[in-house]
Amino acid sequence: MDYLVREGYPCAAERFSVEANIPPTIDLQSIQERVEIRNAIYGGDIQSAIEKINELNPQILDQDSSLHFALLRLQLVELIRTCTATPNGDITPALTFATTHLAPRAPTNPEFLEDLERTMALLIFPPDNLAPPLAALLDPNLRKDVAKRVNEAILSSQGERPNPKFVDLVRLRHWAEQKAREAKKDLPEHIELGLDPDQTGNEKREDSVMQGNGEAEPMIT
Question: The whole model's pTM is what?
Fold first, then answer.
């Protein structure tokens, strides 16, 4: 239950509470708000995501300058992606956005300045011939990384654990298995977690988000 709620599976969480006879204490509205924010980020609509975060709790970004900068940089990446999609595209929107929203913040943190310089380099080199560090900025995984940070920040602001207990249990199991192998205990070469993806297929289809390429993806990251 804890994992489903935090990772954004409202339908699966509600069904689990019924089948497990657990009192319905799930705040489905809160889950849906996080799902909508993550949908926006996965779709490249960063301005909408920022607005939704501020509507939910404006202190989240006010108190986390690193996360705020990460979102703004991702928004700049999306602008650059758009303006470089066609030959001789107009880069003015990207330059204006960088000057207005990122340049004033960059001097406050060496990492901010480095990230901004690296991002602006996308305007110099052709998108089909980028060095790996630059190509990574256009990879959908950057959206996922930022979305994960946003989800954790929202949960923390609501007094919830950023990481579900399930993750801690898996880590504890891995640590115990590692210690047992170091002690030369007789263990199978590979121990399954006991999770069958086929049994959760329906929930994944119901509780899905859209990637930037338009394909549905489970909320689990």
Answer: 0.69
